[in-house]
Automatic annotation (TrEMBL):
Domain Phospholipid/glycerol acyltransferase per the UniProt entry, residue ranges: 17-135
Species assigned in the record: Microbispora oryzae
Protein origin, superkingdom: Bacteria
GO biological process terms, semicolon-separated: phosphatidic acid biosynthetic process
Pfam families on file: Acyltransferase
SUPFAM superfamilies xrefs: Glycerol-3-phosphate (1)-acyltransferase (SSF69593)
Protein name in the entry: 1-acyl-sn-glycerol-3-phosphate acyltransferase
InterPro entries assigned to the protein according to its UniProt record, in alphabetical order: Plipid/glycerol_acylTrfase (IPR002123)
Keywords: Acyltransferase, Transferase
GO molecular function, one term: 1-acylglycerol-3-phosphate O-acyltransferase activity
Keyword Nucleotide-binding: no
Record has Cell membrane as a keyword: no
Length: 213
């Protein structure tokens, strides 16, 4: 793939940091890891626990020191505890606040889940928003074979840390976490709008609304 990368100067070279990213394809963790490695950071990825049980792939993910996430169970909170420990020890955690590949028809970031805000407020580490575009053409959602032709350009843009100072010292109530999450998602969406040179929707897509809940 071709690449067009920007914002590398916003990535701290040392210390714990949360890298909050939009999710477009199963290929984007690898593509983003290339970008981050070339900018001086080795990312720790939160990955579905089921991926660890796939032959070869599971071994590779474990060697990358990824953190398994058991979705829909009480063990899901353990992944956040592990991530918090890693952050306090100086790790760079690659975090997808949406929790899954976007279901927005136009592929804009969806409403985020509150795990990234909880981690940020608990640890005080910076949250660097990162947007990317192109992975969805290389390996579209639902497909298993990459599209090698025509050659795809992978765009990445990292922004400055999200300002979460107004939440410092506040109790981590659901309302506080939702507001902080919205600020993080807005920063990611703004960066993606720059990459796409388009206006983002005013209200992010929420799959819960689409399901009628």
């Amino acid at each position: 793939m071709r690449h067009r990368w920007g914002g590398g100067e916003n990535l701290p070279r040392t210390g714990g940091v949360i890298l909050a990213v939009n999710h477009l394809s199963w290929s984007d963790p690898v593509l983003l890891s290339h970008y981050l490695y070339n900018n001086g950071r080795w990312p720790t990825i939160l990955a579905k626990a089921g991926l660890f049980r796939i032959p070869v792939l599971g071994h590779a993910i474990a060697q990358w020191q990824a953190i398994p996430v058991e979705r829909g169970s009480t063990e899901a909170t353990q992944s956040l505890k592990t991530a918090e420990e890693r952050l306090r020890n100086g790790a760079a955690i690659l975090f997808y606040p949406e929790g899954t590949i976007t279901r927005d028809p136009a592929k804009w970031p969806m409403a985020g889940k509150t795990g990234v805000a909880r981690l940020a407020l608990a640890t005080g580490v910076p949250v660097i928003p990162i947007a990317h575009w192109g992975a969805q053409d290389f390996l579209p959602y639902g497909e298993t074979k990459p599209r090698l032709f025509p050659r795809t350009t992978f765009h990445v843009l990292a922004g400055p840390p999200v300002d979460l100072s107004k939440y410092a010292g506040k109790p981590m109530r659901a309302s506080v976490l939702r507001e902080a999450t919205a600020d993080i998602m807005a920063a990611i969406t703004d960066l993606l709008a720059q990459i796409r040179d388009e206006k983002a929707p005013e209200t992010p897509y929420d799959p819960r609304d689409a399901a009628g809940r």
